[in-house]
Amino acid sequence: MRSPRRRPLLVPVLLCALVVFVSRPSGALDGGDGVTGSGISAEVARLYEDAAVATQQYEAGRREAGAQRERARRLEGLLDGQRRDIAALHEDLGRFARAQYRTGGGLPVEARMLLSDSPEELMRGQHIVRQADLAVRREIDRSRRAEARLAADEARARAEWERLERRNAELAALKNSIQRKLEEARTRLQGQADLSAAAGACRGAVRLDQPETGFTGAWVAPVEAYEMSAGFGSGGARWAHRHTGQDFAVPIGTPVRAVGDGRVVKVACGGAFGMQIVVQHPGGYYTQYAHLASAAVDQGERVRTGQWIGQSGSTGNSTGPHLHFEVRVTPQLGSGVDPVAWLAARGVRL
């Protein structure tokens, strides 16, 4: 999106035209690539959510594939054990047959009758032989059936694991594609924000589709997923005195939330804080959200807990993408209190 640039003007008419151009809400301007300011912000927000969903699906698929792989391994182990049992039964049957032969089991019935001391002894011996033989054969048949079932289960488990692996490869490709698009959109969004901050003129509010929140508490963290970086009161070459807020390291375009109900008292661009929003809350406290890439609210607007009020960026005096969050007792800089302790006192642990 084209934003105004300060250039040497040759005639007053051009100066007037530039003033009119700057004063127009940038959300109505085209970004030069066919995407309006509001369009690129909405695209980043949509891709941000798409990337989160794709990542969740990919991780769930990986866990599911891992479970199926482990199941296939367990079945393979059971199958190996079943095969060993069958081999042992075959060996037992061989030993039984050899013993039967040595004790006369291989003799014709007539010879056994002649050698037996009594008919009862002959019948008893024959019955024992038959029973033992049937028992061994039944056990072998049972083991073979169990082996067939295990082999079928193993084949199904392996096929399911391979299917999940293919699905996860597709999900990984989709996730990477969304991530590439998101990075490109983030770059365009930050470029537009830099132009607005350099001109000192914010675009109009870029309305974002609000997610279903369902928050049960009155207060929340200003971003959902983050790494905390520079803390309140820390020193460093980047600040004239001490750090006046808490920084949250998040990528460009991350939705920024109002930590509680309140009213927007300031939306501004330019200066050390770049694009920033200040919200007044009941009880006299103010929260500031700085270095943004877009603002989704206008001054004077009322906001609710967890509402997306903007998107993080790296405008102003910033060395990289992050959200600078402050809690103040007045709207002005210099009246800040420790945001971590302030939120903790309201039930929000960072």
Spans with pLDDT under 50 lasting ≥5 residues? 1-36
Shape: elongated
Cα(first) to Cα(last) distance is: 36 Å
Total count of strands = 10
Query: Can you write the helix and strand succession as a string?
Result: HHHHEEEEEEEEEEH
Instruction: Work out the helix count.
Output: 5
Please identify the structural class as seen in this structure: alpha+beta
Summarize the helices and strands and which ones pair or pack.
Elements: H1 12-23, H2 37-102, H3 109-115, H4 119-199, E1 227-228, E2 246-249, E3 255-257, E4 262-268, E5 275-280, E6 286-295, E7 302-303, E8 308-312, E9 323-328, E10 336-337, H5 339-344
Antiparallel strand pairs: 1-2, 2-9, 3-8, 4-5, 4-7, 5-6, 6-8, 6-9, 9-10
Q: What do these coordinates show?
A:
With 350 residues, the chain is α+β, with helices and mostly antiparallel strands. 49% of the residues lie in helices and 13% in strands. The protein has five helices and ten strands. Strands 1, 2, 3, 4, 5, 6, 7, 8, 9 and 10 form a ten-stranded antiparallel sheet that branches. Strand 5 and strand 6 (286-295) form a beta hairpin. 30% of the residues are buried. The model is unreliable at 1-36 (pLDDT under 50).
Keywords:
350 residues, alpha+beta
Question: What is the structure about, briefly put?
Answer:
With 350 residues, the protein is an alpha+beta fold. Strands 1, 2, 3, 4, 5, 6, 7, 8, 9 and 10 form a ten-stranded antiparallel β-sheet that branches.
